[in-house]
Predict the structure.
Amino acid sequence: MANESDYLIFVVENNKIFNHLVTEYLKKQHFTRIKSVFSGEECMEAIERGEIPDIVIQDYLLEEMNGIDVLRKVKKKSPRTEFLFLTSNENMEVAVNTIKFGAYDYIVKDKLALEKVVYKLNKIIQLKKLQKKNRQIRMSMLVFLGFIFLVVIFAFLYFVVDIFNVRNYT
């Protein structure tokens, strides 16, 4: 089963010092696939090159695009990517809008913010594992139902329609 190091995490933060702080903290918490980017544009460029993040941790206040703009664009390309907002913006309306547009959570920067991020990352990873398992179970059920359907059709053709002319030989 997948662990923390199997998930690609983008840290989108234009403050280079805070970006570095978040990235290093996550590495110490055993998250190893971390891409540090400093703008929404840089995030989108990486995605256009085929780097699809499992999780994006981002600031709301970015230079050219705000966090919701990034979220909406990324979700169009990768609906399964989860978002955690890590921002100093304490505006309740902004927080509600980020959740409305698909963010997993909105965390205000404070002295416990990084611990909250790790806690939420672990919750997201648990959720992703469950979603993957559900997809596998659904696929198995479809294959099984397909097999049962074929057996029923074959039995119907064999016993009712007698396409194999079995009754003529007895």
